[in-house]
């Protein structure tokens, strides 16, 4: 449907034919509309910025100025990266590299002009405005109270209901698994009494596979319960690339069956952190499973590790369907899922575990192109920076 033309559009289309009086009236009308829009934007509690592809701030409402400590006189000359340290690294951009044409979500801690936690969304303009180059709307939401509340009351009603459900599911699954284990043991004893033959050997191999799968199911239930229960991580020094290898030993055959290729790239130093091995395995399992389910056969899962002075960044990128802009803000909510089959708990568990390790989870996605989930974790020996006066 074509965009409806306003009276102002019609006037602007004939601006060359306007006399001095009509030009004055038009300028006054534009000034009133600008003042009206400025009032609307300045009433919003969320920070609203407009940046170009290089990150230069072109516009900021009053909340945006206040949140990042930007002076109104500096709009048009200041880069967002200077105001929010670590944001460019979190987005995976090299110095001088332009913003990518995708929607992005991040949670960061700001220390200036005051300490607060903010949730940041990058939304590209669908079409260039006038002769300007590519621009992005940056939405800033202050989530300090939300984060503190979550940290202090981790057993919220939703989490409590999940724990109750998980306990019930674990109990219901545990009984048939125990029964299967007992019957497999009985079958194995009967098999020992049968004279050895190719058929009995094949049956023995099948029994061994069944027993292994029962043990794997039991392990999945155990890992799931450990992941959603609020417990302190068992910190140890880990090379995440080695933990990732352990995970691929388990899911490798499924990736192969689905025709999905995997590319792993470790940039510079090894990703060594202090973390809980089992919890990090759960994070990797969840992210790889999400990527697999988002892709068709022939897709590619690319995992890239990089670092800066303070953090390790681990990116899981898929060539799947991407996330709709309307769903981006809800991907970490319990039970939210766009899949026909799925619990909607995977990313919630990932975020809870990573936060428990002092890190953050970021998401970049473009419909029809794919999704990149970025894990940010503090280095094992992170250096403390002194704030400039």
UniProtKB/TrEMBL annotation:
Database matches in PROSITE patterns: HIS_KIN, PAS
Entry annotated with the keyword Nucleotide-binding: yes
Gene3D superfamilies in the cross-refs: 1.10.287.130, Histidine kinase-like ATPase, C-terminal domain, PAS domain
Occurrences of domain Histidine kinase (ranges): 168-381
Record-linked CDD domains: HATPase, HisKA, PAS
Keywords noted in UniProt: ATP-binding, Kinase, Nucleotide-binding, Phosphoprotein, Transferase, Two-component regulatory system
Protein origin, superkingdom: Bacteria
Chemical reaction(s) catalysed: ATP + protein L-histidine = ADP + protein N-phospho-L-histidine
Broadest EC class assigned to this enzyme: transferase
EC code(s) of this entry: 2.7.13.3
GO MF, one example: ATP binding
Coiled-coil annotated spans: none
Pfam family, one: HisKA
Boundaries of every PAS domain copy: 33-75
InterPro entries referenced in this protein's UniProt entry, alphabetically: HATPase_C_sf, HATPase_dom, His_kinase_dom, HisK_dim/P_dom, HisK_dim/P_sf, PAS, PAS-like_dom_sf, Sig_transdc_His_kin-like_C
Identification of the protein by name: histidine kinase
Organism this protein belongs to: Pelagicoccus mobilis
Organism lineage string: Bacteria, Pseudomonadati, Verrucomicrobiota, Opitutia, Puniceicoccales
């Amino acid at each position: 449907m074509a965009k409806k033309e306003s009276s102002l559009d019609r006037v602007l289309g004939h601006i060359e034919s306007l006399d001095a009086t009509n030009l004055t009236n038009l300028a006054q009308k534009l000034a009133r509309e600008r003042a009206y829009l400025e009032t609307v934007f300045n009433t919003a509690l969320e920070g609203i910025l407009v940046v170009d592809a290089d990150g230069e701030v072109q516009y900021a409402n009053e909340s945006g100025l206040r949140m990042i400590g930007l002076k109104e006189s500096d709009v048009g000359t200041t880069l967002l990266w200077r105001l929010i340290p670590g944001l460019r690294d979190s987005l995976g951009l090299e110095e001088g590299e332009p913003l990518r044409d995708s929607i992005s979500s991040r949670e960061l801690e700001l220390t200036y002009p005051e300490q607060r936690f903010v949730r940041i969304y990058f939304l590209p303009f669908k079409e260039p405005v006038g002769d300007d180059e590519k621009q992005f709307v940056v939405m800033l939401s202050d989530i300090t109270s939300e984060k503190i509340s979550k940290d202090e009351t981790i057993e919220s009603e939703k989490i409590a209901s999940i724990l109750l459900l998980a306990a019930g599911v674990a109990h219901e699954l545990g009984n048939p698994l125990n029964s299967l284990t007992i019957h497999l043991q009985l079958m194995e004893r009967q098999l020992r009494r049968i004279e050895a033959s190719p058929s009995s050997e094949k049956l023995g191999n099948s029994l061994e596979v069944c027993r292994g799968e029962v043990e794997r199911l039991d392990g999945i239930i155990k890992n799931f319960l450990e992941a959603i229960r609020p417990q302190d991580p068992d910190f140890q020094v880990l090379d995440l690339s080695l933990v990732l290898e352990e995970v691929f030993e388990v899911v490798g055959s499924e990736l192969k069956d689905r025709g999905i290729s995997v590319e792993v790239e470790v940039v510079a130093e090894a990703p060594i952190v202090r973390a809980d091995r089992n919890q990090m395995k759960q994070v990797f399992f969840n992210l790889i499973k999400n990527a697999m389910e988002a892709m068709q056969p022939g897709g590619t899962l690319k995992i890239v590790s990089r670092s800066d002075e303070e953090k390790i960044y681990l990116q899981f990128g898929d060539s799947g369907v991407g996330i709709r802009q309307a769903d981006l803000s809800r991907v970490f909510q319990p039970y939210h899922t766009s899949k026909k089959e799925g619990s909607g708990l995977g990313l919630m568990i990932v975020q809870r575990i990573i936060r428990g390790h002092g890190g953050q989870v970021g998401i970049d996605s473009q419909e029809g192109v794919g999704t990149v989930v970025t894990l940010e974790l503090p280095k094992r020996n992170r250096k403390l920076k002194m704030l400039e006066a």
